[in-house]
Amino acid sequence: MTLQRTAPSRPTWRQRVRDPGWGVIFVLPMLVLFVIFRFVPSLGAIGMSFTDYRLSGDFSFIGAENYSRLIEDDLFFESLRVTLLYAVMYVPLTLVVSLGTASMLHHVIRGRGLFRGLLFLPYVTSFVMAGIIWIWIYDSDGLVNGALERIGLGPLAFLSGNQAMVLGSLAVVSVWKSFGYSMLILLAGLKNIPEDVMEAATLDGAGAWAKFRRITMPLLRPVVFFVVVIETIVAFQVFDTIYVMTGGGPARASYGLVYMLYDQGFKFFDFGYAATIGVMLFLVVLLISLVQRYVLDRENT
Amino acid sequence: MTTLTAPPATATSSPPPTRRRRRRSGANAWLTVLLILASVFTVVPFIAVFVLAITPEGAPTIPQQVPDEVTFDNLSAVLSASSFLRWTLNSFVYSIVSVVVILLTAAMAGYAFARKRFPGSNVLMWSFLATLMVPVQATLIPMFVLVSKLEGVNTFWGLIVPTLANSQAVFLMRQFIKGLPDDLFDAAKIDGAGEWTVFWRLVLPLTKPVLATLGIFVFLWHWNDFLWPLVIAQTDEMRTLTVGLSTLNAETVTRARLMASAAISVIPCLVIFGVLQRYLVNSIATTGLKG
Predict the structure, then answer these.
(1) Which CATH superfamily is domain B81-251 in?
(2) Is residue A52 part of a domain?
(3) Are B32 and A110 within 8 A, CB to CB?
(4) What pTM did the predictor assign?
């Protein structure tokens, strides 16, 4: 994907700078927005992480103090652990649900459009809305505990129990709200698998499971990988559901990385420190993308 | 960065050969049952919101029993609370202004990147794409400081303008415009059309389908956006619906009232979904746009 085009008589760089032409004019509005609201804040985050910026706007440069504080901050490592634990629950769950529903949609003919629509429905709502509904669903007199009561179980403390329970409950809400996207991407991938390969396998007497393992999975691998990377990045940015449903609790059991950033910034107004957490978040996302690059490159060679 | 690399899909739904129908039907019945269960999982919470919203306050309701009394008091109470309408209005302003400005500026930038050569266009396109790697949460603090320095806290511009720099939109427009036939642009040039004429009369009409897709997504992104409005809209009258709902949730509002608010706030999205479902679903498969 390169923009380089070779023209027979290319104007020199000097000429092009002197007469930037219409290209610059068309790109200018978006460029201004990007410079002010993407590039400046990106550099600003790094700059602020070396200051003790407070709400008042007073600050002085303190070197790498925020970073050394971060490394000694148990809360930071706890929030990393929480986020990682959440991702470990969310990513496989969303992959299983979206791959499962996509495969089912791929094979079912009658009512496919209807099912596809119904399964995709939660995607158009907000996490705030999802959080509010699911607080009730998880509540002691809510939907799930109501059902459990019928069969003589519960009530379970979904949002106030132990850490695994709370993070698992939050992961389920996020899966409910957003698996529709991955489902559609996987469904598109399934449709791209050539029909004749499947036909040949069927003629050779391959069962459904063998076909799934030997043909579907290898051919779908790039798409599955794409979904895993996207969803991992999404998992590390979890905030809305935590804010609405648990407020980071109980006892910081769901105190994720972005929630810590928000908490340090807008509860304690420790902007310099919060910006440092932002830089860390960026590094984590960068790491995930680099791993993706590495794996893709290795597969292509 | 990865968000745009979804493999494109060609939607082909060929009916299966009839000879396999019978053998498949048993498995198909099971799959249908599973799909019904999955649909129950996605749809029941919505039904529950609406049931709870029309149950009288404090009256027994699901899951214990189906409410035997229906009331619209909760819904009308929510609608007559002035702040709720104000939040709805704010959400509409936030979403619709963003849609209009992003579509226009992204189409312009996409056109420039696809069809014009100018100094630094390569570097610029790549720097736009590189910003996809920086999560918005990572730049939340400097963005807030910047906007508050410019006195944009609790203003519409402070809410809207910083969210308009959208590289996914630019990239999508660039890819689409690149794919348009060169002949059209050559013909327009020969006819002596000016740059603006080409943009308004050629580029915009030809990109209508992709503009529509992008418009729906931008609307949903902004309508459902939470973190930025949360930090920038600090007064009650500047809140968007998502932020307003979260404050209702934190306050001691009765459950019936909260659910009534949630029910009303989800209606615009359900309308969009109802009208454009097929379209929305197909465009995710072909563009890989991610909310």
Answers:
(1) MetI-like (1.10.3720.10)
(2) yes
(3) yes
(4) 0.86
